[in-house]
Amino acid sequence: MAEKTAAVNNNEALDPAMAHEGPDAGKIISVMSAFLEYTAKHLPDDVLKKLGELRSAETEPLALEIYDLMFRNIEMADKLSRPVCQDTGYMQFWIRCGAEFPLIGELEEILTAALLEATSAAPLRFNVVETFDENNTGTNTGTGAPTFWWDIIPGWDGCEIYTYPAGGGCSLPGHAMVLMPGQGYEEAVLFVMDRMTSYGLNACPPLFVGVGFGASAETAAMNAKRALMRPVGSHNQNELAAGMERLLEDGINAIGFGPQGMGGKYSVLGVNIENTARHPATLGVAVTTGCWCHRRGCIEFDRELNYIAKTHSDFVFR
Ligand code: SF4
Q1: DSSP 8-state assignment for residue 182
Q2: Which of 86, 291, 295, 296 has most ligand 1 atoms within 8 Å of CB, for mutation?
């Protein structure tokens, strides 16, 4: 995924002796904990840029007022070291890990430890409730929580970790269904537009819309979530899919949600589509939405645990 990259190298922070002996799990826990805290308090570079562009293009007085409040919120979160939104999310990790990354076997444990540390350090709101028992675990961890999705990359010794604090309004809600192929892509667009006009406002606009296509409901849903990890302003490599992204963006903008759904010229930060092949007799489609406070993070480690914070150029581990 192409992304603004700012090399932030922690060579100096690493104990040189440790680097020779192999990577230190304690070090990556500390970096990840700091990164989770930082991304709760600072929006990614691409989201900030797009919000600025939408504000510049806006003309509605109320919408302008709301954008100003959003930017004041962002400024105060930085100044006071507070999360940008009170819903600090249910943590989901997408791990693109090289098969030769030295800590591959410990990564889930490492990321869980980092989340526990960030939860008390930031602090992050407790957002994990055991289903049926209905008790809040008070740790942001629980049965199957946080979520881990994996892509294993053969022949690579690095690791790219996407962090996503999914909120109760943004991207935890979602819809998926399987269409008959005869219903065509037109029906898929109708499905997306229907969801946007019904539950789109569950997340605070301007929305970041992820649309997934695949063979089944669950592959489409996973693709919709994966679409939210792509940078704002990026496009699907397939020309037809990229064309649909633009059409959907125009269509959803025409609804005129404006910031916080109070009306305005634009509804979305963007629309991203991700797709995988389908069965001849099925066309799975899914949609999910991020919000204006789209706090996804992406950080890449090499085998020595030097890192690049791909989404947040100002992040530095101290
Ligand atoms: S939708 Fe986003 S901005 Fe709105 S409450 Fe949820 S996390 Fe916060």
Answers
A1: G
A2: 291
What beta strand segments (E) does 15-119 contain?
A: 90-98
Spatial neighbors of 32 by CB under 8 A, at least 6 apart, are 110, 111, 114, 118, 161, 299
Give the amino acid at 294: H
Using DSSP, state whether 215 is helix, strand or coil: coil
* Beta partners for residue 211, in sequence order: 273, 287
Q: How far apart are the first and last CA of the chain?
A: 27
Structure pTM?
A: 0.92
207-214 and 268-275: which strand pairing? parallel
Dist CA 141 CA 139 (whole Å): 5
Return the sign of the alpha-carbon dihedral for residues 31, 32, 34, 39: positive
Sign of the dihedral through C-alpha 265, 256, 266, 202: positive
- For atom 1 of ligand 1, the residue with the nearest CA is 203
- 120-167 pLDDT, tens per residue? 999 999 999 999 999 999 999 999 999 999 999 999 999 999 999 999
The CA distance from 32 to 297, in Å, is 11
